[in-house]
Amino acid sequence: MRLFLVASLGLLTFTSVFGQGAIDGFYKDKHQGAVVLGSGFEDSKKYLAGDTELDLTRITYYTSVFAAFGITDNLDVNLMVPYISSNKESDFQDISVFLKYRFLRFTSAIGEFEVSTAAGFSTPVSNYKIGGLNDIGQQATSIETRGMLHFTSKSFWFATLQSGFSFKLEEVPNSFPATLKVGRATSNWYYDVFYDFQYSFGGIDYRGTPRPQNFKEFGVNFHKVGGTLYKPLSSKLGAYVSVSYLFKGRNTFLGAAYGLGISYSF
User: Fold this and answer.
1) For residues 58 and 41, is the Cβ–Cβ distance under 8 A?
2) Which residues, other chains included, contact 98 with Cβ-Cβ below 8 Å and sequence gap of 6+?
3) Are 18 and 257 in contact (CB under 8 A)?
4) Which one of 90, 94, 152, 211 has the fewest beta carbons within 10 angstroms of its own beta carbon?
């Protein structure tokens, strides 16, 4: 049943647009890994300047590489690098590296419960521009912490709740993320639905004061829902499609995002 795990790992988390939590509740076996190549786009119809809705549109495309490897049965390392294109702004964005550790696991009559913790960082890998609505990031280096509760039932339904703290080493405000994911994972199919949330502490708003503005100081909040469908194609290969919709927030585009990708297990 390990094959389906690649799908939940493969929906990448490099921006508030495409993200659904930086990690998931599944683990690779010791010395087993996976690589996922994903691509997609976000079709934004509105922009929230602070919480004021503006008629600004944008289409953003991405391609990304994600890798996961089981150092032990209870310790995984995840690495992710995205390339993003927004109008004339195109470049590699931020590399992310996470270590995830499962320190508690127990079985009950209804299923299996797991408790994990994770820590990681992200930092820019290119000198992409900031200062406009086509920015692909905020040029921030972040230290990330997460705690996670994961439950899998006897019939392979699962639920994962994670949250933590994102500490920024730049002017970008620190933030509180949270993700709830519910789905079913079998050897033939994987599917899930999720709710993703971020709250930034302080920061300034687009078109607010002071002017001229430092775009690194924007506080970005968002509420997003979405889902994933994954199908194994062989013992090594699989493919997924995803859709999400960002419907509320602060200093962020609103709209749908679509993705697809292929995975290879080794």
Assistant:
1) no
2) 22, 23, 77, 78, 79, 118, 119, 120, 144
3) yes
4) 211
Instruction: Report residue 21's pLDDT band, with 50, 70 and 90 as the boundaries.
Output: low
Classify domain 2-265 at the CATH superfamily level. Answer: monomeric porin ompg (2.40.160.40)
3-state secondary structure the chain: CHHHHHHHHHCCCCCCCCCCCCCCCCCCCCCCEEEEEEEEEEEEEEEEECCEEECCCEEEEEEEEEEEEEEECCEEEEEEEEEEEECCEEEECEEEEEEEEEEEEEECCCEEEEEEEEEEEEEECCCCCCCCCCCCCCCCCEEEEEEEEEEEECCCEEEEEEEEEEEECCCCCCEEEEEEEEEEECCCCEEEEEEEEEEECCCECCCCCCCCCCHHHECCEEEEEEEEEEEECCCCEEEEEEEEEEEEEECEEEEEEEEEEEEEEC
Per-residue pLDDT tens for 75-110? 999 999 999 999 889 999 999 999 999 999 999 999
Structure-token match 């503006």, residue found: 54
pLDDT in tens, 27-71: 999 999 999 999 999 999 999 999 999 999 999 999 999 999 999
